[in-house]
Amino acid sequence: MPKQILHIGIDDTDSAKGMCTTFLAYKIISRLKKENVDFLDFPNLVRFNPNIPWKTRGNGAVGFKISTSHPKKIKNLVKKFVKQYSDVKNGANPGLVFCQDENIPDDFSKFSSDAMWKLINRNSAKKILVKHNLDFFYLGNGQGLVGATSVIGYNFEDQTYELLSYRKSSHFGKKRSLDKSKVKQMQEKTYPNTFNSFDSKKNKILLMPHGPDPVFYGVRGENSKTLISASKMIQPKEKLAGHLIFKTNQGTGDHLKNEIDVNNFLPYTSGTLQGIVDSKPIVTKGGHVFFSIVSKSITIHCAVYKPTRITDIANELIIGDIIKVGGGIRKATKTLPRILNLEFIKILKLEKKSKLVNPFCQKCKKHMKSKGKNQGFQCVHCKNTSSHKTRQFIPRSLKKQLYIPDVSAHRHLTKPIQRMKQKTKIEKFNPHSLWISNF
To answer: Which structural domain, as residue segments, surrounds residue 78?
Structure first.
């Protein structure tokens, strides 16, 4: 039989207590390699809107593209894996979507783009799937259909790669351990082709999760070859099950490409906007900073949290500064309005900062003293007088530039400084490379 193209999308198979959708992809792909299946690209790991309140961790969905002579058999096999491994008893709501066609329907792209920055109702996913008569499957409330549909429709404008290594089942839930010096050395040797593996300021490993999921570590970078060599430098003592390399949108700032609609300012929306600072920043007891900006004549409340380490920047803003900000909108509470939680601050124009001071005596080169309320000022040495204070301009510590959080506070989609001017490099997929490995 001639081979047919099959796109597969999977989401929400994990819970806070265990499992991982990327691990399920690893299990499925390992099994499919025993069938007469051709893999046409790296498996995709796409992170969608990080501000969705019910996300498990990074709001990521996985997808892969294959060709097969037996699509029905493959669909049943994948469905069996989703049923077997999804952590439904602990709250997972898995969704599985198949698109058996080379060409993906155009409205899938729009659906995927929307899922990157706003809240999508799961019924919207069902409607688009029924409209195009696609095979799909879900358990629980079907929330996973949103990600599973979106990952199939996603178009990469920029991409990075992540090598995820997986633990043997006997080690699930046990404490992970890595040599800090080896991780630090790996990052130094592979920079700038890897990112967010180690925080040198805090002497902290960033590539190793802490939950009960099957992932041991994940190295992120610009190409698969670098990731494989970087992984060899880490040298974990624990015997691992294997690894899988994903093409991802991590580190691309994907969720902040649209402009926030200030007229609606919907909760859980991600994006950017430009405005003028119109309130003096307030620092709370916990070190968080709150201020407001005016954008298109509407006041927007902003928050910068201490872990981002850009609170010092926010606190130096003054009324009149023009800035561009990006982040996610937090739902209003009984005591607080909707707030834009900031992920970056870009200074576009700095207002001049000044203060009124006692007049300066040009003869004696000293400031005059006040003679009393509304009585003017006088130099104590030469007796020269002046009737009013003078304005003194104060140098600003801020510069017209972009400020982003410290690396430890980066989200999966946060674009690191080293990638700001990075030109997109598309890596051709080689099915015979070490993109998947079973140790």
So the answer is: 4-155
